[in-house]
């Protein structure tokens, strides 16, 4: 009986040691990853630009930073669940309202870094159409297609609603920002008709002569501001970083230059670094140096 008790006791102790060991391993892994700031971003020109810019700035200050490329819904759920520290680009109050309603109780909305962001349906200036409610007249020459981006993007949901709102006999084509821009470039070069989903800020408006179609019923809403979001307790864990980022503001000129340099060099890291080197005074204002 005593031998049986001793065996049981050894088993219990062994299990306890195993559990404690696993707990320590997990704790060590958490300690190793806690110091790394994980920034969630999407494959959009302005998002790629500012994410790489902040990665460089924070690493220059001694922080470890990882950029995580995610779809829009995953960005919001990831920050809400604490899997991501920062979501770099969120449009409020209109474009990303669905995600704010869905996940907003579990993350913090930080300060605006860009004011007056816009989005909608865009065509080349050489096209005669000026308003969304005129698009039906141009259905045949447009092949009944609106060229979009990623299916999970807010602008795609809003465009589908717009198609229904204006009773348009058009198909919304899923693509990507790169795919959409390639199609725009090809047709623009030949002065062929095309309508795309697009937004400002974007380097395309500097590269091409484009115009937004009027939206009489405001199906896309009015202009948004762009903010960033952080996981719960980020302000306690990374107070210095949060203070820097909340002092961060960009306008059409500064953001446009950043995107243009990246496009010209065809390298987001090299382009962001060059822009930082050329804008030391502005960067120092953000970092309180």
From TrEMBL:
One Pfam family in the UniProt entry: OpuAC
GO aspect biological process, one term: glycine betaine transport
SUPFAM superfamilies, per database record: Periplasmic binding protein-like II
Keywords: Cell membrane, Membrane, Transport
Annotated InterPro entries: ABC_Gly_betaine_transp_sub-bd
Protein localization: Cell membrane
Transmembrane domains' residue ranges: none
Domain ABC-type glycine betaine transport system substrate-binding stretches: 35-277
GO CC terms: ATP-binding cassette (ABC) transporter complex
GO terms of molecular function: amine transmembrane transporter activity; carnitine transmembrane transporter activity
Protein name: Glycine/betaine ABC transporter
Organism: Natranaerobius trueperi
Taxon lineage: Bacteria, Bacillati, Bacillota, Clostridia, Natranaerobiales
